[in-house]
Amino acid sequence: MASTVKMIGVIGGGQMGSGIAQLTAMHGIDVCLVDVNTQALSTASSSISSSINRLVSKSQLSQDKASDAFKRLRFTTDLNDLSLADFIIEAIVESEDVKKSLFLQLDKIAKSSAILASNTSSISITRLASSTSRPKQVIGMHFMNPPPVMKLIEIVRGADTSDETFAATKELSQRLGKTVITSQDYSGFIVNRILMPMINEAFYTLYTNVATKEDIDMGMKLGTNHPMGPLELADFIGLDVCLSIMKVLHAGLGDNKYAPCPLLVQYVDAGRLGRKRGIGVYDYSKEPRSTKS
Ligand code: 3HC
To answer: pTM to 2 decimals?
Structure first.
């Protein structure tokens, strides 16, 4: 099926949605990026343009391939434009209710053969699928941030996901140049079940004054060879996203070890959401505006 995927719909013009759209267009597939907010679409369009142009300037992408990618990208606020999509990837806010209502709409708009994938970082695929009439064609396709760079896609099978849907999603992921891992549908899947408690523990380490934020990050960067320290990574992902994943782990796995650190909760309450807001654990307000996220 995936080799016959000619058009992909991506919903959500944030960091993940725009990165997925860029990746898809660069792999020769037509993509329609949908967001209800025109400002989000225009930010997504300029961040995709600057990312592709940067690859050209570094000679990592030919001008011809860049022009082809630009031609394949379309931006719209109208969900009905996805009626011809073969494969739809949802990358909107991490709220189960909002995602369910989107899946309900998509089920009506998308053609009957289309697969509906969610880039959710932790919400149950089985429950999202239950809001549609095609649970066999619903699957989790979890990209890592930034999608054009990170080599992994975590595929999550819901209780009713068919073997055909799984095979098509795996084939598409490989066509996008990614390595695939497969998870059953339990809170946090594989990556976030392990990553988020580490980030949460870094917050507890800061909260209990064990060390400074710089030393916590340096410890994990140089001590365990991570590209970013956990607090810096939390700012990169978004503290609101980290908190919502911890809440899903806490509710779904029912163990107090997943309770979100009060400092993480307080930062989110204060609007310190990380790089996207210019402040999180660190203050980015004096940095030149990043074109990468
Ligand atoms: N789009 C395209 N390319 C990008 C990019 C983007 N948004 N961001 C960075 N790049 C490219 C750069 O062009 C550069 O390419 P080059 O090496 O060929 O020149 C390369 O990535 C490295 O970028 P930089 O040199 O500017 O910066 P770094 O070396 O610091 O790398 C990073 C940036 C790739 C983000 C690296 O710091 C990293 O790997 N960090 C960890 C990221 C991570 O763990 N992501 C997963 C988070 S968990 C997740 O996403 C799950 C979710 O559910 C929460």
So the answer is: 0.93
